[in-house]
Every structure is written in structure tokens, then in C-alpha cells.
Design goal:
Number of domains: 3
CATH topology of the largest domain: TIM Barrel
CATH architecture of the largest domain: Alpha-Beta Barrel
Strand order of the largest sheet: 12-17-16-15-13-14
CATH class of the largest domain: Alpha Beta
Bound molecules: 2-acetamido-2-deoxy-beta-D-glucopyranose
Strand content: 15-25%
């Protein structure tokens, strides 16, 4: 607290300084480090670095030419959102041929729009551990955004939240609580969207790990979002080592993927609003990561006009009066005209804002069609909506759903999964069926009752929820299959014990569908199932010796009461699968495909297994969240504390068996060829031409299918770095070996980049490749690593 108070003062002083003097202080160039990085972190907090376009020189030229022709007012208007049909709307500059620019939610598809798909959630996609599917999902999603006329998609979620707490309301929108895997996911998600010519907005920057107190709530009326609250948003107090090691890494990968935009988060960082925090925006993002695009605020994330234009480029919702969070930047031109803000800053913001537009060719080859929806009012144009869905998208959604299903428990032999030629099935749970009012009605607000969300869960709530065109429920798909296979089906979409007892006891297998809701605006209170779900499970387990549990959940839920029960013959997590839910689960239940999902999180036994107090309930007027566990979240925490989880990170069963063999490590140099934009992260050993992302070693191993049927396995590489107080192991590679036939072997190669073997040195302010012994272990989960080898640096 002491430190954060000091920092706030320092920032306040810096802000005052920036106002008083010409803001363009010369930056100290240090040519021994990439990007002319300076030793003194504070030296480049102000002014915000000017973009030079990086590898987008043509786009930079176009953007700076056109911005050069704009008046102060035009530049200011371009970067300030106004009301319109989209969630965010830049008015463009008509005089110069810059059209209106449309920004739309969200990470599971365009929202709120009809005529699009509801994609699987981020956590679901992560559970596939399949980089091709991560890319494909975003590619298809990008096509739908583009074809609806959207320029800028407000997706993907990288590390913010990363999943510091299993309770965080938006974890399901993101991916892994691991910086390496999360970064790979971010990279694929950004390139997928942008290969469809829609710009990505990687979010939420940075250390946004809880919903509780995310807004400046009025403490007397905590549900009101007020313009000027009595309360500050939650402050994430994170040290420099943790910031670099855990939270910043995925954003570095997003920059490398060429993410056009970033979104600053609602929380404060060390006592400063994220959207006007010069250290994270001007230093970490624009200097260290050399980000060339523009940062836009989360909706209502701007609280101070002048301070925020010194750090970010776009104010949303800007001057749109329909939001309760205040209007900001309507006076931006005045601030420039009276010398409070340097014109260069606004010029740079406008250039940065237009860079992705030109780079993606939205001005010429890839002009999005006209927007015909109205995202504010019933969602439809007077003559209906534009359906942009394609059949192949449906199949990709289905495939991600199937490939993500993570089998956690399974009986040997006749029981459990896959279903063994049953004659009679009992299906149990409200999660089997449709929502009562149909799917066009989103669960949060917009005139639909909260209770509407009482059928199957395919997505979480809030701005990350996309309206599905239909939902193939588990009941729809299982019934269809049962009819084809001549199976009798009875179902109970109720928690009535008698009914459940009755139908379960008469069936060969009782399939219980469990659900757990998570949403933006609210953290989960615990990881327990609701009472109706608990009593449903109790009743089924009491009456059937072949209970199969399928879960539609955002993350871990407490299943300790049933996990060891011998009547529970199988447990699988199907996450939030999107519109094809039933079609995704049937191939696994009936054995057409072998499950191949792996846990993208650690499945603990109780909430107490996880680091304590990771959701701060500090109800003071300026609530603080101390990130005192540092980098030790999820499996890093369980490993360090020696806690036995129920199921470990990376774990998932199959219908076949695999073995890994022949681990080899080799020095192998390959220049980085994946950077669409290059970061300027400082590292020891920079020689003027090498990169922190050059490959320096490879680890290879062989995966063999030792079972009797085809299946896919995820080979995982964990590295133990030398040094005191390092994590027991850290994920540094994964590869999904797909469609391996019985008896077949395949070699996998993990590329290790310099960064993957480096640590952040807080004293030197640089990445270093430490000397010492490294252990490389390969297997099929974070706790089943039969192969290992070492190498010394
Ligand atoms: C906070 O809410 C209380 C109760 O509704 C109200 O009286 C008060 O004016 C509010 N304060 C602010 C700053 O909006
Ligand atoms: C927060 O403050 C700590 C202590 O002064 C500092 O080390 C760290 O870099 C700051 N973190 C961020 C993200 O600003
Ligand atoms: C500059 O303009 C802003 C916005 O109108 C105003 O709030 C501020 O007081 C002005 N500053 C000076 C130094 O005139
Ligand atoms: C589902 O929600 C609808 C609409 O609110 C309500 O009428 C219905 O009773 C609910 N059904 C269940 C099973 O909760
Ligand atoms: C368990 O089964 C017994 C015998 O059928 C019944 O009396 C009891 O109510 C059941 N309990 C639950 C939780 O279903
Ligand atoms: C398992 O199910 C059988 C019915 O098949 C029941 O008699 C038994 O009590 C159940 N066992 C448990 C531990 O609930
Ligand atoms: C994981 O590896 C073990 C051997 O280490 C093997 O028995 C098992 O079949 C593998 N599990 C899966 C799901 O592939």
C-alpha cells in the first residue's frame, strides 16, 4: 500500500510535469538493446512513444499522410467513439474518405447481432490443445465479423483474466492460466481474426483478474455504475517480476501476431486506472513490446480525459450518452488548442488508430460491407438481418466441441464410456434441453428474464455471449442418435429425486448433465454446484451403478462428493461448447471418436487448494488486490505447495492408450519467422540482429498409440529452469498428435525459443538466459512425465 501510494504520487507528479512542460522529452537511446530501450523505466513513461509502423511501413505511410490532412477536431473525433449501430463507432472523417468504423463484441462471435454463429468459449478451445483449431475458430469468427460490416472485433481475451482465481467471472472467455499456452492461444486467435481482414482487439490490458469492484461503484448503491463514484475500481498491485513473467507474456505474443488493437482494463494498476497508467501503456506496451496499433478503453474504463489521452488512443464509448459511465474526450480538441495536450499525441493516436485499417486493406481490397444491424435496438434492420453463417463454420464449431471434451474418470470394461450397446438410457438435468424462451433472447438484460437461461449452457454471460442461431441441445442430438441405434430414451429435466431414481434405476446408463454459470460483472462465489444440481446427482448415483456425468462448466466445480463413488463410471467436462453442443458430445458418448481434450486448468478438490484471497473483497473506498502469490497460480501453486489436485493441469483420458519414448534434446538455431510485428523486449546477448524469439533448442519425443483404436494425444513439454525459487516445472511446449492409428508412432518436435528459457531480471531490467542445469520433461499431463533429460547452459 505504501508503495502503491508512492507510485500514485509519482504518477501524479509526472502527469503534472507533462502538462507544464513540452511533453516531448528526448528518450535515452541504448543501442545495446533492441528498440533503443532505456535503462530507466521511468524515463519513457511520458510522452507516449510515437508509432513508426514497424513492419507495416506502407500502412504507416498511408495513415500518416491522411492524418496529416486532418484538423485537430477531425483527429479528435476520429478516435472518440460516438453513438451508432455498433457497440463502438468511430465517425471516421467523411471529407477525407475515411468511413465510419465499426467495433463489435466479442470473443464467442459478433454480438449483439443476428445471423452469426455462437462459437465455443475460449476455455473450450483451450481444452482442445490444438493450435490449428484455435486458429480456425478465429478465422471463421473473423469472416462473420467482416461480413456483418465490422472493422474491429473486440476479441480475443488473452491474459486479462489469465485465471489467477478460479472464481473470476470471465475466465471462460480466455484460455490457460499459463503464460506460454495462453500466448500461443493469443497468437492463433489474433492471426485467425486478422486473416479474415477484421482487426483484433486483444484484451484486457493488464492484471484484470476479478469482476468484483471493477467499476467505481457507489458503495451505498453497489449495483449502480456511477460517473464519479465514492469508490475506486479494484487496484491490482503486481510486482515487476510477476508482470513480466506471467501477465505480459500473452500480450507480447499478441503484438507478435500483429494485433491491431489492445483494450485497457477496468482495474487500476498499483493505484492508477489501467486506461491512464503510463507505465503499463507507454512503457510496457508501446516501448517494451513496441506495439504499433492503438489501445482503446474498455467501455467506461476512462475516468480522466487528459490523463488517458497521454496513454491510450481511443475512448469508448467516448461521447455516447447511452452509457452511464460518463462521456470522455468530447473536449479533446480544446485540450489541444489550449496547450494542455500536445497535438503530436493526438496525431499519433489517430495514426495508430488507422494503421490496422490500412494494413488489413479495409480501405481498398477488403472493404467491409455496410452495417445493416442496429446493435442497440432489437438488433435488426427493418428488413431483417444478414445471415453470414457458412456450413463449414458449423462443422468447425462442432469439432472444437468434440475435441475439447475432457474425460476425467472412466471405468474399465462394460461400464462408463463409450456407451456399450445400451438398450435403455436415462438422461437427467435441465442442462439437456432448450432455454424456455428460445435462444434469440440473451440472458443478460435486453428485456429477457434472468430465468430464461435455464436450459443447456453453451456460453457464459455478458459481453462475451453471442446469440446462437439455434442450439443443438444434448437432448436433441442424443435422441436422434438413439433413434438411429434403436435405443430407448427416458429423460428428466428436473431435480425431482423420485423421478430421477425411477428412470435411472431402470436404465443401463444414467447420463447426468451438470451446468454451472459464469458471467461478466460477477465473480463466482465458490466452486460448488447449485443445490438442484447436487440433489440430481445424489439421486442418480443412489439409483444407478452406471452414472455418467457430463459438465457444462466455465472451469473447476467441486465434484468431490461423487468423484470416487463407484457408481459414477465416467466424468467428462464439455465446457461451454457453443451452438453445436449436442452434436459435439454424441461422437464421444457413442464412441465414434476417442476423447482428446486435456484440462487447460488445474481441477482442485476444494477452493482452499488454490492461492488464498485471489478475489479481493476489500470494501474500502479504494479496494486493493495484492498479487502476493506472484507467478504461483494454478499448477505452479499446486506444485510449489505440494497439493494433490483432483485432476492435474494437462490431464485427460482417452479410449486408447499412449506411450511417449525417445526424448532427445539438441541445440538447433532458427531465426524467428513468426513476428508479424516485432517486440523490443530487452534481452542479454542482443547482437543487433537476433531476436528473443529465435529458436535455440529442440526437444523431440515419440508418441505411440499402444491401445486398440485410433486416438489423438497431446504431448506436453515442461521445463525446470535453474535458480532459486523457480516453479517446479513450467509448460514450454505442446503438440496435439492427431488421428494416431492403433500401433502407430509419430515423432513430435518442440521448438524452444530463447524467451522460453529466459527469466526476467528485475535489477537489470532485461531478459537473461540463466546459466545452470535445465530439466526437460515430456508426457501427457503436468504430473505424468515419464521422459526427462537435462542440458546445461
Ligand atoms: C450513492 O448512492 C446513494 C444511495 O442511492 C446516493 O444517495 C448517493 O448520492 C450516491 N452517491 C454518488 C456519488 O452517486
Ligand atoms: C507496481 O509497483 C511495484 C512496486 O513499486 C513495481 O515493482 C511494479 O513494477 C509496479 N507494477 C506495475 C505493473 O506497474
Ligand atoms: C483547456 O480546456 C479544457 C477543456 O475545455 C479545460 O478544462 C481546461 O481548463 C483548459 N485549460 C487551460 C489551461 O485553459
Ligand atoms: C425457465 O424459464 C422460464 C422463463 O423465465 C420459466 O417460465 C420456466 O419455469 C423456467 N423453467 C425452469 C425449469 O426453471
Ligand atoms: C436413495 O434410494 C432410496 C431407496 O430407493 C430412497 O429411499 C432415497 O430417498 C434415495 N435418496 C436419494 C438422495 O435419492
Ligand atoms: C449404487 O447404485 C446401486 C443401484 O444400482 C445402489 O443400490 C447403491 O446403493 C449405490 N451405491 C451408492 C454408493 O450410492
Ligand atoms: C498417458 O500416459 C500414460 C503412460 O505414461 C499412459 O498409460 C496413458 O494411456 C496416457 N493417457 C492418455 C490419455 O493418453
Amino acid at each position: 500500500m505504501q508503495l502503491s501510494a508512492l507510485l500514485t504520487t509519482a504518477v501524479a507528479l509526472a502527469v503534472a510535469n507533462a502538462a507544464a512542460v513540452d511533453t516531448h522529452l528526448p528518450r535515452q537511446e541504448d543501442t545495446s538493446k533492441p528498440g533503443g530501450y532505456t535503462e530507466d523505466n521511468n524515463a519513457d513513461i511520458y510522452p507516449s512513444p510515437m508509432a513508426n509502423g514497424g513492419k507495416w511501413s506502407d500502412a504507416y505511410e498511408k495513415a500518416s499522410n491522411i492524418v496529416g490532412q486532418m484538423s485537430v477536431k477531425e483527429k479528435a473525433e476520429l478516435i472518440t467513439s460516438v453513438s451508432g449501430p455498433c457497440v463502438g463507432n468511430s465517425p471516421g472523417v467523411e471529407r477525407l474518405g475515411i468511413p465510419k468504423i465499426c467495433l463489435m463484441d466479442g470473443p464467442t462471435g459478433p454480438r449483439p447481432v443476428h445471423g452469426v454463429s455462437q462459437f465455443p468459449a475460449g476455455v473450450t478451445t483451450a481444452a482442445t490443445w490444438d493450435r490449428d483449431l484455435m486458429y480456425k475458430r478465429s478465422k471463421h469468427m473473423g469472416q462473420e465479423f467482416f461480413d456483418q460490416g465490422v472493422n474491429i472485433a473486440l476479441a480475443p481475451v488473452a491474459s486479462g483474466p489469465i485465471g489467477r482465481s478460479p472464481l473470476a467471472g470471465r475466465n471462460w472467455e480466455g484460455s490457460f492460466p499459463d503464460p506460454y499456452a495462453n500466448g500461443r492461444y493469443a497468437y492463433e486467435s489474433v492471426t485467425g481474426l486478422q486473416d479474415s481482414h477484421v482487426a483484433a482487439t486483444t484484451k484486457h490490458f493488464i492484471a484484470y483478474e476479478q469482476e468484483t469492484f471493477r467499476h467505481p461503484y457507489n458503495t451505498s448503491a453497489p449495483d449502480d455504475i456511477v460517473e464519479v463514484g465514492e469508490q475506486q475500481p479494484i487496484s491490482s498491485n503486481v510486482d515487476d517480476y510477476t508482470t513480466h513473467t506471467l501477465y505480459l507474456g500473452p500480450f507480447a505474443e499478441a503484438v507478435r501476431a500483429g494485433s491491431g488493437y489492445m483494450m485497457c482494463s477496468y482495474n487500476e494498476i498499483n493505484g492508477t486506472h489501467a486506461c491512464n497508467d503510463p507505465y503499463t501503456q507507454n512503457h510496457l506496451l508501446k516501448t517494451e513490446l513496441n506495439f504499433q496499433g492503438a489501445t482503446q478503453s474498455d467501455w467506461g474504463g476512462v475516468h480522466l480525459s487528459k490523463e488517458s489521452i497521454e496513454t491510450i488512443e481511443v475512448s469508448t464509448p467516448g461521447t455516447d450518452p447511452s452509457y452511464k459511465m460518463g462521456t470522455f474526450w468530447s473536449d479533446l480538441d480544446e485540450l489541444v488548442n489550449n496547450g494542455t495536450v500536445a497535438e503530436d499525441r493526438v496525431t499519433d493516436a489517430a495514426i495508430r488508430f488507422l494503421l490496422p485499417y490500412y494494413w488489413l486493406g479495409q480501405d481498398e481490397e477488403h472493404v467491409p460491407p455496410e452495417v445493416i444491424f442496429n446493435g442497440n435496438d432489437g438488433y435488426d434492420a427493418p428488413d431483417g438481418y444478414r445471415n453470414v453463417r457458412k456450413p463449414e463454420t458449423r462443422e468447425t464449431i462442432r469439432m472444437i466441441g468434440t475435441e475439447s471434451i475432457t474425460l476425467l474418470k472412466n471405468a474399465e470394461g462394460e461400464m462408463g464410456l463409450p456407451l456399450n450397446k445400451p438398450q435403455r438410457l436415462a438422461l437427467i438435468g435441465s442442462d439437456l434441453g432448450d432455454n424456455m424462451i428460445g435462444d434469440g433472447c440473451p440472458p443478460n438484460g435486453n428485456g429477457c428474464p434472468e430465468g430464461n437461461f435455464n436450459g443447456t449452457l453453451t456460453d457464459g454471460g455478458g459481453s462475451g455471449y453471442a446469440i446462437p442461431p439455434y442450439t443443438v441441445t444434448p437432448l436433441d442430438a442424443i435422441k436422434k442418435r438413439a433413434i438411429e441405434d434403436g435405443i430407448e430414451v427416458s429423460y428428466a429435466m428436473t431435480d425431482d429425486n423420485e423421478v430421477i431414481n425411477e428412470i435411472s434405476s431402470r436404465a443401463d446408463a444414467a447420463l447426468v448433465f451438470i451446468k454451472n454459470h459464469a458471467t461478466e460483472e460477477e465473480d463466482r462465489h465458490d466452486i460448488d454446484l447449485t443445490q438442484d444440481q447436487i440433489s440430481m446427482l445424489d439421486a442418480a448415483v443412489n439409483a444407478s451403478s452406471n452414472v455418467i456425468i457430463v459438465m457444462h462448466v466455465p472451469g473447476v466445480v467441486n465434484i468431490e462428493k461423487w468423484a470416487d463413488n463407484e457408481n459414477v463410471t465416467a466424468i467428462a467436462s464439455a465446457w461451454y461448447p457453443g451452438q453445436e453442443s449436442g452434436n459435439a458430445v454424441v461422437p464421444i458418448l457413442f464412441g465414434d471418436e476417442s476423447p482428446s481434450g486435456k484440462l487447460p486448468i488445474t481441477w482442485g478438490k476444494t477452493l482452499d487448494d488454490y492461492p488464498p484471497n485471489t478475489i479481493s473483497h476489500d470494501d474500502s473506498s479504494s479496494p486493493q488486490a495484492e498479487f502476493s502469490e506472484g507467478v504461483y497460480i494454478d499448477y505452479r501453486w499446486f506444485d510449489k505447495q505440494g497439493i494433490e489436485p483432483r485432476y492435474e493441469f494437462g490431464f485427460g483420458l482417452s479410449y486408447t492408450t499412449f506411450e511417449c519414448s525417445d526424448i532427445k534434446i539438441a541445440d538447433n538455431y532458427k531465426k524467428d519467422d513468426k513476428a508479424i510485428q516485432e517486440t523490443a523486449e530487452p534481452f542479454e546477448g542482443f547482437d543487433g540482429s537476433n531476436s528473443l524469439y529465435d529458436m535455440i533448442k529442440t526437444v523431440t519425443a515419440t508418441v505411440t498409440n499402444t491401445g486398440e483404436r485410433e486416438g489423438s494425444e497431446v504431448a506436453q513439454l515442461y521445463v525446470t529452469l535453474p535458480g532459486e525459487d523457480m516453479p517446479v516445472r513450467e509448460l514450454k511446449g505442446f503438440e496435439k498428435v492427431k488421428g494416431l492409428k492403433a500401433g502407430e508412432s509419430r515423432e513430435v518436435t518442440f521448438d524452444l525459443r530463447l524467451k522460453d528459457l529466459s527469466v526476467w531480471d528485475v535489477v537489470k531490467g532485461t531478459w537473461v538466459y540463466p546459466e545452470g542445469e535445465y530439466t526437460f520433461a515430456v508426457g501427457n499431463s503436468s504430473r505424468n512425465l515419464p521422459l526427462s533429460t537435462t542440458a546445461t547452459h
